[in-house]
Amino acid sequence: MMKILAEIKKQCPSTVANTKSCNCSYSGCEKHGLCCQCLSYHRSRRELPACYFPDEVEKTYDRSIRKFIEIMS
Ligand code: SF4
Predict the structure, then answer these.
(1) Which of 23, 63, 67, 69 could bond to 47 as cystine, CB 3.0-4.6 Å?
(2) Which residue has the least CA distance to atom 5 on ligand 1?
(3) Quick one: which of 23, 21, 4 has its CA closest to 63?
(4) Is this structure's pTM higher than 0.85?
């Protein structure tokens, strides 16, 4: 999977710009800059990507929809 993501990253014209605006603090993730893969991954877990959360919440890694509703209420 990592090899496939690396290949997609090379071909995606938006990866550099996406990475610059990404607030995700989980440095070990290979999906940084690949918003389509990031969204798909978190959606499959009934979550939202890091960029939906302010930095102080993002760094808790609680990306649940419940947390998103909580901070937006
Ligand atoms: S939000 Fe999740 S999938 Fe996206 S870069 Fe961060 S850890 Fe990876």
Answers:
(1) 63
(2) 32
(3) 23
(4) yes
Q: Within a 13 Å sphere around the CA of 17, how many CA atoms are in the beta-carbon half?
A: 3
CA separation for the pair 48, 25 (Å, rounded): 14
- State residue 12's pLDDT score: 95
Say how many Å lie between the CA of residue 24 and the centre of ligand 1: 6
Give the sign of the dihedral formed by CA 19, CA 62, CA 2, CA 27.
positive
Bridge partners, residue 64, by sequence: 47
Query: Which amino acid, one-letter code, is at 27?
Result: S
- Ligand 1, pocket-test mutation among 18, 21, 35, 38, most atoms within 8 A of CB: 38
By the 8 A CB rule, do 57 and 31 touch? no
